[in-house]
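In response to the reviewer comment on reproducibility (Comment 2.3), we provide here a single inverse folding case reported in full, input and output, so that an independent group could reproduce the run without further information from us. The structure tokens appear first.
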């Protein structure tokens, strides 16, 4: 056979060559899966013959020795062009832009706006604290987490949040600890909007005829603050003066207050001395406390109907400038076996005396 005529068959007829389509490949694969007996034998015979020829060093066309085939680069290029899975290299300077229908992977919220939003929110936890929060200020709730065990007691809150499109999640204890930032979450955690403080002038304008206000100097322990708010709510005290109103809205303080925080208004004090002077001008008596300096025993004192009770930190007490503002100074008598009482405990004792003497309703 003439080797130059590649398109001639053994019988001299012209070969007809077809471009195999995907459909033909699929049909062929289907035929192989059907596995006809005759076809299987013919394929085996053909494979055996070609295998013997290769072992003898002959090819399928005229018994010439097999030679390694040379593939041209152009043929490889054509094969790659036909492949639907080709890799396209892009210059390093060209950045990939993801198109997800306008939804990007990164948040489009302005970082400054997000920071401001977080400053305006706080986390509270504890069953009583969150129940009081929902009862008094449900609109301030932003998001909530619950353990399954407490959901029956928050049925009304869950219904309200679902109706008002407020996000809430029923999670396990580990997830709730992460959300609340503490293991002492009490089975529930809310993210709420902060109330912020009010000015001394605004508070004075709406104050009752009989009114006691708490003024705190350098008292920052959240558990003490929570205990003091609980005592204030129990004895009818509605205002607390402090330099940072946000301290009354920490999660630990609100949980310790056991719902009492919802009945307390924080009063901003740009300066404690000037704020106390405003209350004095409004008819309040400034009452200071100390266990170190000469004072009147609380048990023998007649407490005014309108007063500001000033308390300081346990270690040093009131500063000299705050002490000098006092119109009356008190101490709580005791055995003397300890230097002083916890500031939260002392607050409760003094407020109870004021409540009893003035019969506040």
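Designed residues, in position order:
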């Amino acid at each position: 056979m003439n080797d130059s005529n590649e398109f001639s068959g053994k019988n001299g007829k012209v070969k007809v060559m077809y471009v195999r389509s995907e459909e033909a490949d699929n049909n062929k694969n289907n035929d192989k899966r059907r596995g006809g007996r005759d076809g299987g034998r013919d394929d085996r015979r053909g494979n055996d013959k070609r295998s013997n020829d290769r072992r003898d060093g002959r090819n399928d066309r005229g018994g010439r020795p097999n030679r390694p085939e040379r593939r041209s680069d152009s043929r490889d290029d054509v094969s790659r062009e036909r492949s639907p899975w080709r890799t396209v290299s892009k210059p390093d300077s060209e950045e990939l832009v993801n198109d997800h229908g306008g939804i990007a992977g990164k948040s489009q919220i302005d970082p400054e706006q997000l920071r401001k939003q977080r400053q305006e929110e706080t986390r509270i936890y504890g069953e009583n604290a969150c129940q009081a929060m929902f009862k008094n200020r449900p609109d301030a709730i932003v998001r909530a987490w619950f353990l399954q065990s407490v959901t029956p007691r928050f049925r009304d809150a869950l219904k309200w949040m679902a109706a008002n499109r407020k996000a809430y999640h029923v999670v396990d204890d580990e997830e709730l600890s992460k959300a609340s930032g503490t293991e002492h979450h009490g089975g529930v955690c809310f993210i709420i909007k902060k109330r912020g403080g009010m000015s001394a002038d605004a508070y004075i304008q709406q104050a009752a005829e009989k009114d006691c206000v708490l003024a705190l100097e350098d008292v920052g322990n959240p558990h003490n603050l929570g205990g003091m708010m609980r005592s204030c709510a129990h004895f009818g005290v509605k205002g607390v003066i402090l330099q940072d109103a946000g301290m009354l809205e920490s999660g630990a303080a609100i949980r310790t207050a056991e719902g009492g925080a919802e009945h307390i208004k924080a009063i901003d004090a740009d300066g404690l001395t000037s704020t106390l002077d405003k209350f004095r001008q409004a008819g309040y008596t400034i009452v200071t406390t100390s266990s170190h300096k000469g004072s009147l025993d609380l048990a023998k004192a007649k407490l005014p109907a309108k007063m500001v009770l000033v308390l300081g930190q346990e270690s040093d007490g009131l500063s000299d400038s705050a002490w000098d503002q006092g119109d009356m100074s008190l101490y709580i008598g005791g055995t003397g076996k300890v230097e002083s009482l916890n500031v939260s405990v002392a607050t409760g004792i003094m407020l109870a005396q004021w409540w009893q003497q003035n019969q506040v309703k």
